[in-house]
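Listing 4. Sequential folding, example run.
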Amino acid sequence: MSTALVVGGGPNGLAAAVCLAAEGVQVTVLEAADEVGGGARSSEAIVPGLLHDHCSAIHPMAVGSPFLGRFDLRRYGLTWRWPEVDCVHPLDGGGAGVLHRSVDETAAGLGRDGSRWRLAFGYAARRFDALSDDIMGPLLRLPDHPLMLARFGVPTLLPGSTFARLFRTDEGRALFGGVAAHAFRPLHYPMTSAIGMGIIAAGHRHGWAVAEGGSQSITNAMVALLTDLGGKIETGVPVRAAAQLPPADVTMFDLAPGAVAGILGDRLPRHVSRAFRRFRRGPGAFKVDFAVEGGVPWANPHAHRAGTVHLAGTYAELAATEREVHAGRMPERPFVLVGQQYLADPQRSVGDTHPVWTYAHVPNGYTGDATAAIVAQIERFAPGFAERVVGKAVRSTAQLATYNPNYDGGDIMTGAKDIRQLTFGPRITLSPYSIGVPGMYICSAATPPGPGAHGMCGANAARLALAELGRA
C-alpha cells in the first residue's frame, strides 16, 4: 500500500489527506498545534457559550467547492446557513451598497448601476459551477471551458481601480471595491479585480454562507471523513527538519514556502529554495472579537441583516487606505471587515449578547494596537456601538502568527497575491504544487487558487501526487 505524510492540518492539508485516502493511500497528518484546522477553527470566547470563528468565517468560495461537493460533508455534520443579506458597504450619510445573493436584487438596489452590475456579474454567476473547474486550479493550463473562461477572465486582468470605473454611483464603486480589497493589494495594481470578481460571482451563485456551529464544523467534518477512510492524525508534532519526516511515498506540506525551505534545507533544488525563501508576504490582519449586547446599532438598516459589513467609506478612501497599508504605514481609518455570523446561525449567541467578528487591514508585522481604530470605524457607521460592547478578545499580527505560523506578520492570505504569486504560486512554474523533490508537494494557500476553506489547494496537489503514483 502506498503511504502519504501530510505536514500541517489546515483545511488544505486535510483536503489533501482525504483525497489521497479516498484512493487507498495510507495517510498520516502531522499537526504542530494541539488541534487541526488552521484558520478554520472556532471556540467559545469572552462570554461562556459565545461562539467565535478564529479566522476563516464567511465562505462564498467553499459552498460550491468541487472538493467539498465531491465528498458531501453533510453526512459528517456540515450544514451551511445564509444571512438575509450577504454584504453591506455603508457610506457616510446612511447610504450603502448592498450585496444580495440574487444578481437582480443587488442590481435593483444600485439604481443607475443596476444594468452595469448585471453586465459585470450576471454571466459569471449563472455559469460559476462550470467556471469553478477552471478558476479553482492552476491558471496556466488548458481550460475545460476556454471560451467561458476567456469571457470571465479578461476583466480579471484589470486593476480594481479600472474595473470600478464601470460603476457610476458611490454605492456601486464602494461595493465592488470592498470585495476586491479582500486581495490585500493596492487597487491600482493589475489583476486586483480578480479576487473581487471571483468572490462576487461565487456569492451570486452560492451565497456568502457560514458553517452552522462555526467554521470548526468544516474541520470536524473533514476529520470525521478522513478517519472513516482510515487516515490518522497526530497533533502536537512540530516538524522543523527533514530528519523528522517518516519515510513515505508522498509528502505534502500545508505550510508557507519559507517553512518548507527551512525543513528540507539542501534537499530542495537551489532555484526552488531561493524562490521559497524570497516568497513575498502580504499585509497583516489585526483581529478583534466583540461580545455585543443587542447587536451593532448600524445607521443603515440593511446592515442589521448582513452577514458581512465592509467599513471603508467611499471607493477613493478605501483605495487610499490600501495604498498606505501596502507602503507599511498604518492608516488612521483602516479597512475593517465585520462578521455577524450569528444572524445566519443564532446558536452562536447567548441570549441578547452576540459575537461580532472583526479585523482590520494593517501593515505586515504591525506592532501597534488597532483596537481603537476598529472601534472608531464601527462607531462611524453605528453610533453607540462602544456602549454595547461587554467584552472583547484581541489577536495582533504577532498573535496570529503564533496561532498559525502560515500567517507570518499577520498575513492571513499566506503570501502577497501579486501578479506572479497569484498566477504561479510560490515560484514560476507550470506545476505550482511540485517542489522539485520526487514525491514531495506543497499544498498550502500559497498555491492556487489561494486562501479559503474550500480545500482546493490540497485537492489539486493530491491529484498531481496520485497521477505520479499511477493512481489517477
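-- end of first protein; second protein begins --
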Amino acid sequence: MVVFNAMPVTKFPKGFLWGGATAANQLEGAWDQDGKGPSIDDALPGGKARFAIASSPEFAWQIDEKKYLYPNHQGIDHYHYFKDDIKLFAEMGFKCYRFSIAWSRIFPQGDETKPNEAGLKFYDQLIDECLKYQIEPVITISHYEMPLNLAKKYGGWKNRQLIDFYQRFAEVILKRYSNRVHYWMTFNEINSAFHFPVMSQGLVPKTGSQDFTNIFQAWHNQFVASALAVKFAHQLDLNLKIGCMILYATSYPVDADPSNQLANLKLNQDLNFFCADVQVRGKYPSTTARLLREHHVDPQKLSITEQDLQLIAAYPVDYIGFSYYMSMVTDVTHRDAKNVAGNLVGGVKNPFLKTSDWGWQIDPTGLRIALNQLYGRYQKPLFVVENGLGAIDQLTADSKIHDDYRIDYLRQHIKAMLGALNDGVDLMGYTPWGCIDLVSASTGQMSKRYGFIYVDLNDQGQGSLKRIRKDSFYWYQKVIKSQGQEI
C-alpha cells in the first residue's frame, strides 16, 4: 500500500547541505606561486569590458599587464588566507563548502604526465581544514578555467586530446582526495557555452568560437571526459557522488502568441536541458538534430564514435548541481521589448520583477519552478550550488555592512526551495554563490559583491584584504542553525 505524507514540510531535512560556493580562479590568487601555471582566467582582464575583449577578433590569450589589470592574479589571496576563511565559514555553521581545484595548480601546462606536488599539498591542507570543522567539501573539478597552454597550443575543448588531459587531472585528484571528499562535479555551468564558450571551453574567435561546430564538438569531448570521471570515481568508491553542473535560467514566453510559446520551448530544450539530458540520461536528446540544423552544423564534421556514446550511456551523473540567479523572458515578436542583463544570458524585461544593481531580474518563484522542472524531467537529486545577489555594499564608518537587500533576496529563494520540497522535489543542499566576496567572473570586479563576508579590496586591487562579517553573515548563521525555520 502506498502511504502519502499529508503533513506540510516546514523545515529542511536532516543532513541538508547548507554552505557556500566559490571558484579557485576567482579567490585563490597566487597565480604564479608554488609551481602553478597560468590559466585561461589569468588572461582575462578586469572590468566590464572583459567579455568584449575576450570576444574580439584579435584576442589570443595574451597577458598584457601594461595595458590591463588582472584581478584574478591576486583574487582575495585565499591561497594564504584559507584557514581564516574556513574558520569564518565554520562560525556561520556551514555543513559543506563548494570550491574548485585549479587545474593549472596541479598540471601547470595541462599536458604533463606528472602532477605538481606543491599544488596537491595545498588542497590537502584546504580539505583538512574543512574537515577540522566538520565541513563537507564539494569539489568542482573544472570551474571556468583550464591551463592556458591547453587553450593556446591545443585550441581548447574542441580538441579531443583534452579528454586525455582532463582524465589524467581528474584521476589524480579523485585518487588523492576521495577518502575525504564525497561530493564532486565535473564541469561548471557546462551549458553556458551556448552564449560564451571562452571560460567553459577555452574557445575565442581566433580558435573558432563563432562556429557552432566547434562548440558542439567541445561539448561532446566534455561529455566523454565527464563520463570517464564518473567511471573512475565509482571504481574508487561506489559511495562517491559525482554530478553535473548547469546554468539554469527559468524562462517565460512574453505572451500567449504561439511564436513566443514555441521559441520559449526551444530555448528550454537547448539551454536548460540539452547538456543535462546527455549527462543525466546518458544519451543525446531527440532535439539534437534540430539543434544542429539551426546552427548550421554538418554532423559529418563531428568526431563522435560509437565507443564515446557507449561510455556516455554507461556512466551518467549521480545528481544535478545548478546555478540559479534570475529568470528571463523570451520574445521573438519584439513588441516594444526592452532587454535586460543576466547570468551570461539576458532576455526581455519582465514588468513584474525588480532587478539587481547589475540588471539581473530577481525571481524567487523562478527557482521553485526550476526545481520542479528539473526534478520532474530527471528524478535525480538536485543541488542548488549557486544563488546570490551581486550588489554594491557600503562600508559604514564603524566598519559594518548592512546588506538587508541580500538577506531579502536569499530569504525569498530559501522560501522557494521549501516550497519545492513541499512539491516533492529531492533537494540535497544549498550553497549560495560567493559566500565570501571575490572577483566577479562576468566583470572582473570586486565591487560586484555576493558574500556574507566583506573583503577590503577595490576594483584596482587595492585594500587591506581584511575580512568583515556583514549583517547577512549573522542572518545565515541563524538560518543554518534553525534548519531554515528562522529566515
